[in-house]
Predict the 3D structure of the following.
Amino acid sequence: MIIRPIEVGDAEDFLALSKKIDESGFMLFEPGERETTVEQQRKSIERISGEKRSVIFVAEVENKLAGFIAALGGNLKRNQHSAYLVLGVQEDYQGQGIATKLFEQMFEWANQLGISRLELTVIKDNTKAFNLYRKMGFILEGEKIHSLIIDGKPVNEYYLYKLL
């Protein structure tokens, strides 16, 4: 397994990975809802790669993208110490330590940039992810009530943070 920064040339594979992860039902996009083109994905990777306080790391297993972690950092004086994280690991690769390695790389990156607060959200019913985040040192900060509508029903999200 290799953990590395995403490259523009990964756009097509990254888009396919994102669509596969969306099928879990635990991401913001509904399964099949993502309409991003490869060109749009390339531009998004270029934009994020050009931001000092944002990054995407991918996990590569046998030359295939298996997962990712993205940090979207604050660009203003008041929030440049923080970054919002998004994590996704394809189901076939879960339970192999990929998410842990992605988080470790992210913590190292954040420390190098002086980012002292990492935050993320998780659908309340996603127990597996919630337990992983707690294992990685994230603390429950609160619950956003009816933050999403899934299959016509309101769903809550947990907000978690980690101070470095």
Remarks:
- The chain has four helices and seven strands.
